[in-house]
Write a structure and sequence with these properties.
The structure is a homodimer of 332-residue chains. The first copy, chain A, is built from 13 helices and six strands. Chain A has 332 residues and is α/β, with parallel strands linked by helices. Chain A folds into two domains: 47 residues, no CATH class; 271 residues, Nicotinate-nucleotide-dimethylbenzimidazole phosphoribosyltransferase (CobT), large domain (Rossmann fold, 3-Layer(aba) Sandwich). The longest helix of chain A has 20 residues. Chain A is globular, with a radius of gyration of 20 Å. Chains A, B: InterPro entries: Nict_dMeBzImd_PRibTrfase, Nict_dMeBzImd_PRibTrfase_bact, Nict_dMeBzImd_PRibTrfase_N, Nict_dMeBzImd_PRibTrfase_sf.
């Protein structure tokens, strides 16, 4: 059993001045405890991008029309989005899973694409439940299957990312519900909402959360979620249950992590927060999970991008605990 | 000519929401301007570690004896130090240059080792000049040669690191002199000085800086420097002059960067600050250079370690400006 004490003892036995690498050592200890080994590994690794549409876009909560979800899915499928570029830069395999995109993917689908739509996008969460509990379970299963596939392929670090116009509205609802913050605190500009959209977004979130609060947790979550967010939650819970190291992305991803922890308590032990995004509710979500982000760079793209930027910090942490001489080995 | 405006125009034409990657985009712009290309490159890259001893250790300013410099040089030569592990993790070539280590390297020297000692360590800077101006020029030339070699080998990103017990005392003197801060502000615990050592260190720094201030700049710098710090300054200046991207490490490295900028003005245009260390004077040194650090992780090891941890952040930045579709290419 490798607990924090055992991991710190290893760090402190290495050939360098005591505690001279700050947060890098803290991260190395977390990796060692998650993986139960003093030489944690970070390769191979993969990012799975889950995409879906959101009925709540009908309320004018987003600067972008729903059709952009399909356009970005096509860009990712063509290997030309920010997430593809970052995954290539860091030797990270990439998968793209349609959990509910309204527009069909035009053209040839690449090997790394999977069609697993639960439906053509969620219902409008401002008018009633975004999805049924049965559909929530289907979307969750898509994600948990992906985690199991990734682990079976030998991946040591799992990242989930998302693409879904409107999904910061869903994330704000879920964060308000699960981290216990107000709609005002939970709502940010997402991919670029203006002031008028922000007012609508706050009102939508406040009303939706008030409508479901107090009910059964799974039902309340399903009423507010997106298909891609439910899939990410399933991915996180299954990844954690199998002992994988799970690296979180931004606000939407952390909403999924809150869901995973609520429905599969203890999952958080395997989570590492890649960054704190520019979305104002993200800090509260991370605090609820007790996680300190590695980077605070004002990133708010999604697509797993923040986690991919943080990924090589895990490589550094693994190197400085697992690949350095012990003081006791020197000068003998 | 690629100025910041041209680089931001490229960023803003990419297929993602406006300014959605925060500091990563700022870093991408800096890379593009340094390299004068909209698809900046970060490979191949190398770290050159310069090692030397310091006569000022006779004053009891360090928690470690001078002999540790030689022991750590041997550990680096054996490929087993933190810097080796981090360089391996990030596909970064490593060179080790003895610019003035008192102890001879015992055992076989690896291909990546170069013996170029200017002397067996500096004189005690508390008693008189640490080195002559002629020796300063020799050490500087060792570093500038290394930069030219690294560039000739095709390296796009250059990192310098250091090993030298006592060198945070020299760095504090240089930072006080060149950034205009007091000895109190410039002195930190280095590799682990206790309170008594700290008092001595502050007194030594204050007296040495007072002694040389007002004289000729090169003479004053030589009187306070270390051989490895002078070599780093030459490395930085020559790297910048040749157009390379120069990634800075911690406090000692930034003292060398201040020297480079003082003696070869304009060098700073090619510098990127990898991190802000736990040493209290580091922030003032970076501010004097007008640089924002990428990470603030409380690292204080030296050996190029902080720059190596930050290095893959440059890979991400290069990827998100150079390897992503333009909005104008989509949906056409």
């Amino acid at each position: 059993m490798i607990d924090e004490g055992a991991a710190w003892a290893r760090i402190d036995a290495l050939a360098r001045p005591h505690r001279s690498l700050g947060m890098l050592e803290t991260l190395a200890v977390r990796l060692a405890v998650i993986q139960q080994r003093l030489d944690p590994v970070t390769r191979p690794r993969c990012v799975v991008l889950f995409a879906a549409d959101h009925g709540v876009t009908a309320q004018g909560v987003s600067a972008w029309p729903s059709a952009v979800t399909g356009a970005m899915v096509a860009t990712i499928a063509a290997g030309r989005a920010s997430s593809n570029a970052l995954a290539r830069a860091h030797d990270c395999a990439l998968r793209l899973v349609d959990v509910g995109v309204a527009a069909a993917l035009v053209g040839p689908s690449p090997d790394f694409y999977r069609a697993a739509a639960v439906g053509p996008g969620t219902a409008d969460l401002s008018q009633g439940p975004a999805m049924t509990v049965a559909d929530f379970d289907r979307a969750w299963a898509v994600g948990s299957d992906e985690a199991r596939l990734a682990i079976a392929a030998g991946n040591a670090v799992l990242i989930a990312g998302e693409m879904g116009i409107g999904n910061t509205t869903s994330a704000a609802c879920l964060t308000a519900l699960l981290a216990g913050i107000s709609a005002d605190e939970a709502v940010g500009r997402g991919a670029g909402a203006d002031d008028a959209m922000m007012s609508v977004k706050v009102a939508v979130v406040a009303a939706a959360v008030a409508r479901v609060a107090g009910g059964d947790a799974r039902g309340a979550i399903a009423a507010l979620a997106g298909f891609e967010i439910a899939a990410m939650a399933g991915f996180y819970a299954a990844g954690a249950a199998a002992g994988a190291t799970v690296l979180l992305d931004g606000y939407v991803a952390t909403a999924a992590a809150l869901m995973a922890e609520r429905l599969a308590p203890g999952s958080v032990r395997n989570f590492i927060a890649g960054h704190r995004s520019a979305e104002p509710g993200h800090g509260a979500a991370l605090a609820k999970l007790g996680l300190e982000p590695l980077l605070e760079w004002g990133m708010r793209l999604g697509e797993g991008s923040g986690a991919l930027v943080a990924l090589p910090l895990l490589d550094s942490a693994a190197a400085i605990i697992g690949d350095v001489a012990l003081l006791s080995e020197l000068g003998g």
